[in-house]
């Protein structure tokens, strides 16, 4: 019996003096061993299949970790609780808040439990012994509740601390983008309005644009589509709907250079002569007039489908 306690001691120590039934089984324990320790007053039950060592310190982290251990992976601390774990200024240790995969039942009076369809799209990090959403995903989740200015302050704090950068935020945005997904529109807007303080890479522009289309419910275009005329290579376009012969070119800062513009013109002419519709969008227009972009793509798709 003592040997089970010895085997579990390191687990208790790293999990804020909590163990789950899975931990106990992995250490060679049984339901009988659990019952004995509960009756003797050495352990107490704090959640479904989660037990606490009596007399150990009570912490906010333990209150947050208990429902996560009860559900098991991939359950994580999320939203405001994750923000507190990451140390984002202005977020304190409030009500425990966790995200679990949709379809799992885990209602708790003392904790806010959020059902998520996209936990598999974020990285799981461990902070102060508690699994949590990574910082970029946490910022995306906060975008549902924070205004643009405060969300930018959170991003700037993360960038100053070298904990997140624009590329990580854009990548997270692209992975999670879908119509109606909370936080997507605000985070995209804040990124687009502020990223030009640094150089906007072509790849960042492409990922932001893909997330923008997904957010608005448009089909995902092919990325870096190669157009050929028989065996002759004609062009590689940034984005395309090949079945509709629609090419979308995204003009970042490099396209302002005269040499690049001169190279682009014959490529575009070749595409048009082959029957392709070519739509070009600048970074400035993407930031300032995004609704017009959607309208033009939808019009091009309608025209191609009607042809």
Task: Map the helices and strands.
Elements: H1 2-14, E1 18-20, H2 21-26, H3 31-39, E2 43-47, E3 50-53, H4 60-71, E4 76-77, H5 79-86, E5 97-101, E6 112-116, E7 124-127, E8 130-133, H6 135-142, H7 148-160, H8 166-176, H9 184-194, H10 202-215, E9 222-229, E10 232-241, E11 246-251, H11 258-273, E12 277-282, H12 283-288, H13 290-306
Parallel strand pairs: 5-6, 11-12
Antiparallel strand pairs: 1-3, 2-3, 4-5, 7-8, 9-10, 10-11
Would you mind describing this structure in some detail?
By secondary structure, the protein is an alpha+beta fold. It has three domains: 1-56, Arc Repressor Mutant, subunit A, CATH 1.10.10; 140-214, no CATH class; 218-306, Endonuclease, Chain A (3-Layer(aba) Sandwich). The chain is 47% helix and 20% strand. It is built from 13 helices and twelve strands. The protein has helices at 2-14, 21-26, 31-39, 60-71, 79-86, 135-142, 148-160, 166-176, 184-194, 202-215, 258-273, 283-288, 290-306; strands at 18-20, 43-47, 50-53, 76-77, 97-101, 112-116, 124-127, 130-133, 222-229, 232-241, 246-251, 277-282. The strands form four sheets. The protein has a four-stranded mixed sheet with strand order 9-10-11-12. It has a three-stranded antiparallel sheet with strand order 1-3-2, sandwiched between helices. A hairpin with a 2-residue loop joins strand 9 and strand 10 (232-241). The radius of gyration is 26 Å and the shape is elongated. The relative contact order is 0.07. The model has no long low-confidence stretch (mean pLDDT 91).
């Amino acid at each position: 019996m003592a040997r089970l306690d010895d085997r579990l001691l390191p687990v208790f120590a790293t999990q804020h003096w909590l163990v789950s039934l899975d931990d106990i089984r992995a250490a060679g324990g049984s339901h009988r061993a659990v019952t004995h320790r509960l009756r003797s007053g050495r352990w107490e039950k704090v959640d479904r299949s989660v037990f606490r060592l009596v007399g150990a310190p009570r912490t906010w982290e333990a209150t947050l970790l208990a429902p996560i251990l009860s559900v098991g992976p991939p359950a994580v601390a999320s939203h405001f609780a994750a923000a507190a774990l990451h140390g984002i200024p202005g977020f304190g240790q409030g009500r425990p808040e966790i995200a679990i995969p949709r379809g799992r039942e885990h209602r708790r009076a003392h904790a806010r439990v959020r059902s998520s369809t996209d936990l598999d799209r974020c990285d799981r990090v461990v902070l102060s012994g508690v699994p949590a959403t990574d910082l970029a995903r946490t910022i995306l989740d906060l975008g549902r509740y924070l205004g643009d200015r405060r969300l930018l302050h959170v991003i700037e704090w993360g960038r100053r601390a070298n904990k997140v950068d624009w590329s990580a935020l854009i990548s997270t945005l692209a992975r999670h983008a879908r119509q109606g997904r909370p936080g997507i529109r605000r985070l995209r807007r804040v990124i687009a309005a502020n990223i030009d303080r640094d150089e906007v890479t072509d790849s960042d522009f492409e990922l932001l644009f893909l997330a923008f289309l997904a957010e608005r419910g448009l089909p995902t275009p092919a990325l870096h589509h190669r157009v050929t005329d028989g065996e002759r290579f004609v062009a590689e376009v940034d984005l395309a709907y090949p079945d509709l012969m629609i090419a979308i070119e995204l003009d970042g800062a490099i396209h302002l250079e005269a040499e690049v513009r001169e190279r682009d013109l014959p490529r575009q002419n070749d595409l048009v002569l082959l029957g392709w519709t070519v739509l070009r969008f600048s970074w400035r227009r993407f930031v300032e007039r995004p609704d017009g972009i959607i309208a033009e793509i939808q019009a091009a798709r309608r025209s191609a489908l009607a042809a």
